[in-house]
Design goal:
The chain is mostly beta strands. Helix content is about 0%, strand content about 35%. The strands form 4 sheets. A 3-stranded antiparallel β-sheet has the order 6-5-9, with no helix packed on it. Strands 1-2 form a two-stranded antiparallel sheet.
Length: about 120
């Protein structure tokens, strides 16, 4: 991640497969997280680490766990064999959608001070 904050920030997959990043000024991350395996192929951001199948999926955030609700908010996950793409939520089912993450060259210096 092209950030200006001292120490930078790193991209990783959380143990549940969620695309995540470390907080500024911290190297903390959940045990079992996966670093590495990320890259670019043909203008796409890809993950080729353990259990990777193909691409990324976007899953609705369980908006009942938040106040106010997060309607329309999605979490990006690596499409790994261990992550379900359809899961129950209070009698209904959330269905994850396949997504493509595109890469672009940015030459304007740092992209941000930090991401939160």
């Amino acid at each position: 991640m092209d950030v200006e904050v001292p120490g930078g920030q790193q991209v990783y997959l959380a143990p549940n497969g969620a695309l995540s990043f470390t907080q500024a000024h911290s190297i903390s991350y959940p045990p079992g997280s996966q670093f590495g395996g990320f890259g670019g192929i043909g203008g796409e951001f890809v993950y080729a680490g353990p259990n990777a199948t193909a691409g990324w999926i976007a899953c609705p955030v369980d908006d009942l766990a938040f106040s106010p609700p997060l309607n329309g908010v999605y979490q990006i996950y690596a499409n790994v064999s261990s992550h379900p793409t359809r899961f129950p939520n209070n009698g209904a089912f959330f269905v994850c959608d396949d997504v493509t993450l595109l890469l672009d060259v940015y030459t304007g210096g740092f992209g941000a001070w930090q991401y939160v």
